[in-house]
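> call design_seq(struct)
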């Protein structure tokens, strides 16, 4: 098996130079680094993970903690994060919190601390003061996606602003009877995205001097089936049905479009529907949406974490409170149009 001695001999440099070049350390000239990398490639050198850990104190492994892995948003964030980490030479250990409080306690008090991870990326998980303190004491940087984490770096959209923007789009088309399909209290999770999006919807109506009607608000899970059932109930009585619906997720929006069509409504001539997230099936359904690009969020969060690990700035605190607001984009498609019916 080829080792750094063989690489050093082939490149004509010292083993110390090989070690510094392969580990990304400074104090190596660009010419020497190029010679080392070329020699390593030609000889088929593969670095020993255990040797790297002993030499640097790092495992080149990042822990990713999320409440679900079988939902589109989370799998999309995970895909972006993993691709970014792998491209920068890091392994990934995934921790799923779907088992509840006991599972979460085991993850943060045992598994994350026992496994050799250099840092932690959380998705829609708000760390407690105790969890953050334990990881900070071990010099593990944290980056959170999905909402602000006191004492740590985080990346998040403005959920309230997104709810407002979706509603303003419908108002701009002349709709004054606007319903919303929101998440249930059980779907609130750590950052209360459903409540924030609902607040944006209600505030946009109030700013337009429109009354908020409780019968035009439905709560369900963030699924196609949930959106279908909620929309069918909301639109079932044509005498009181709204002319537009804001759905708190694209998957709810897909269900709402199908429910409207099953009831004989034309989309968007009779009923306009807007969603939120940026699901790839949005083009198929023609769903207007507020796109938050979760895949790119995952990549950004992962790169933020790797940048911290590779900064080499020992004077910088391992964790600081810093919120990066992620931009959202209005995607107007064929599911929304100007109000046409009385």
């Amino acid at each position: 098996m080829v080792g750094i001695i063989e690489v050093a001999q082939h490149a004509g440099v010292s083993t110390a130079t090989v070690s510094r070049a392969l580990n990304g350390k400074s104090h190596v000239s660009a010419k020497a680094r190029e010679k080392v990398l070329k020699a390593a490639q030609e000889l088929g050198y593969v670095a020993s993970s255990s040797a790297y850990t002993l030499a640097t104190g790092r495992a080149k492994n990042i822990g990713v903690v999320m409440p679900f892995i079988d939902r589109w948003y989370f799998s999309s964030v995970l895909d972006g994060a993993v691709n970014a980490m792998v491209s920068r030479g890091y392994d990934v250990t995934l921790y799923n919190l779907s088992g509840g409080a006991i599972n979460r306690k085991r993850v943060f008090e045992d598994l994350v601390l026992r496994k050799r991870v250099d840092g932690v990326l959380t998705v829609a998980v708000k760390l407690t003061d105790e969890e953050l303190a334990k990881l900070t004491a071990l010099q593990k940087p944290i980056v959170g996606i999905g909402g602000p984490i006191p004492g740590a770096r985080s990346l998040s959209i403005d959920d309230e602003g997104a709810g407002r923007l979706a509603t303003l789009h419908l108002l701009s088309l002349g709709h004054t009877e606007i319903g919303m399909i929101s998440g249930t209290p059980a779907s609130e999770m750590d950052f209360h995205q459903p409540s924030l999006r609902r607040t944006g919807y209600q505030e946009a109506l109030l700013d337009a001097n429109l009354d908020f009607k409780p019968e035009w608000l439905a709560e369900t899970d963030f699924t196609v089936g949930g959106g279908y059932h909620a929309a069918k109930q909301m639109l079932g009585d044509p005498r009181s049905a709204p002319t537009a619906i804001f759905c708190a997720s694209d998957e709810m929006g897909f269900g709402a479009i199908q429910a409207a069509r099953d009831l004989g409504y034309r989309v968007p001539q009779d009923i306009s529907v807007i969603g939120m997230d940026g699901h790839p099936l949005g083009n198929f359904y023609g769903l207007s949406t507020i796109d938050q690009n979760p895949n790119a969020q995952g990549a950004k969060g992962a790169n933020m974490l790797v940048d911290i690990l590779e900064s080499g700035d020992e004077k910088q605190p391992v964790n600081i409170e810093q919120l990066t607001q992620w931009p959202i984009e209005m995607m107007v498609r064929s599911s929304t149009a100007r109000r046409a019916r009385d």
